[in-house]
Amino acid sequence: MTVLRPIAIVATSTRTPRVGPSIAAFVHDKLQPAAAKANIALHQVHLSDFKLPIYDESVIPAMVPEQASFSHPHSKAWSAEMKRHDGYVFVVPEYNYGMSGGTKNAIDYLVHEIRGKPVVIVSYGVVGGSFASEQLRHTFEKLGLKVAGTRPQLAFENGREGPDLFAAMGKGELGEGSKELWGREKGDEILKGFEELVELLGEKA
User: Fold this and answer.
1) Is the pLDDT of residue 76 over 60?
2) What is the domain range of residue 165?
3) Cβ–Cβ under 8 Å, residues 87 and 118
4) Any idea which of 97-106, 157-166, 180-189, 191-200 has the lowest mean pLDDT?
5) Number of domain units in the chain
6) CATH code: domain of residue 116
7) Which residues form the NADPH-dependent FMN reductase-like domain (predicted)?
8) What is the pTM of this model?
9) What is the pLDDT of residue 122?
C-alpha cells in the first residue's frame, strides 16, 4: 500500500467574514490532480478553527518539546496539527501592506514543528499581496523552512474598482470573475510552486 505524504493547505485569515477558506479551496482544487500523481494527501487547515490568542504560553516555543511543554489546549492542538504535516501551502491575506497579525502570531507558536519542511506561499489582496508574501518568505527562511521560489500572488479582478473585492471583504465571498482570472492566469504558477514543493520534499532537511 502506498503511503501518502500529508501536505497542509493553511488558510491563515481569522477575520469575520473571511474569504480565505474559499481561496484555499480554490488552490486545493487546482493542486489535487498533481498531488494525487505525487502520492500526496492535501489537507485544508483553517487557522480560525484554533482560536489562538496572542502568544500566551509561559515557555518559549524553541524549548518545545525537548526542554518544555505547552500547557494550553489551543497551543497543543496547533502544534500537533502543524507537526503532522510534511510540508505546507500557506494561503495568506495582505492587510495594510503587510502580513496579517493572525498569521504572524500563529507562526510565533512554532519552531521545531515546521523547521526544515518545504512551503509554498500563496498570497492574495487588492494587488496580490506581494508585501505579505515577502515578509512571510523572510520569516520562514529565517526559521529554517525551505521556501519554494515561486510565490503566486492573487489579485482580485479589477482591484479596488471591481465588485469582487467588496464581496470578499463584506461577505467573505469569492467572486466568479476572480476565480476565472486566477484559473486562466495563475493556475500554471500555482502548479509550478507545488512542483517546487514536491522537489524540496525529496531533499533531506
Assistant:
1) yes
2) 5-201
3) yes
4) 157-166
5) 1
6) 3.40.50.360
7) 7-150
8) 0.96
9) 98
